[in-house]
Amino acid sequence: MPDFRAELAENLDESEWEWLIPHVKRDAVIVVASGLDLLDVGVAIATDNIPQVQLWIDEQLITKPNPEQLGEWNANPQKRFQTLIVQPYVIVQEIANT
Predict the structure, then answer these.
(1) What one-character-per-residue DSSP string does 3-65 give?
(2) Residue whose C-alpha is closest to residue 45's, from 94, 91, 95, 92
(3) Pfam family of this protein, just one (predicted)?
(4) Pairing between β-strand 80-86 and β-strand 13-16 as defined by DSSP bridges
(5) Would you say residue 90 has pLDDT above 80?
(6) By C-alpha distance, which of 54, 42, 40, 36 is closest to 90?
(7) 3-state secondary structure at position 68
(8) Are 61 and 33 spatial neighbours (Cβ–Cβ below 8 Å)?
(9) Which of 39, 72, 80, 90 has the most beta carbons within 10 angstroms of its beta carbon?
(10) Which domain range does residue 51 map to?
């Protein structure tokens, strides 16, 4: 079995909100709660671990961006995110302002 975690770790990146806007427009962005590991979520999605992904959705730990978040991020285009591409999705996690 391929090591999805190692493969995905190579795709882990950081980006600004501006870069994510086109992906939001095609409804491909998934927001991950700060308590979850982005790689764990990426592996679960990449390997079609439906029970785990469904649990996170039910607990609202992974969601589509809501209008409040979009408004806040649009007002702050330099907002930084940890990002991970798992086709066709871009999985993001807010980086806390320091």
Answers:
(1) -HHHHHHHH-EEEEHHHHHHHHHTT-EEEE-TTS-HHHHHHHHHTT-HHHHHHHHHTTSEEPP
(2) 91
(3) DUF2288
(4) antiparallel
(5) yes
(6) 42
(7) helix
(8) yes
(9) 90
(10) 4-94
How many structural domains is the chain composed of?
1
Query: What Å distances lie between residue 36 and 19, 27, 98, CA to CA?
Result: 22, 21, 19
pLDDT category at 98 given cuts 50, 70, 90 is low
* Distance between CA atoms of residues 69 and 32, nearest Å: 13
Q: What is the mean pLDDT of the chain?
A: 93
Q: 5 near 43, Cβ under 8 Å?
A: yes
Measured over the CA atoms of residue 46, residue 48, residue 92 and residue 36, the dihedral's sign is negative
Higher local confidence (pLDDT), 44 or 3: 44
**pLDDT of 85 strictly over 70:** yes
Q: Tell me the mean pLDDT in the region 17-36.
A: 96
Amino acid at 64: K
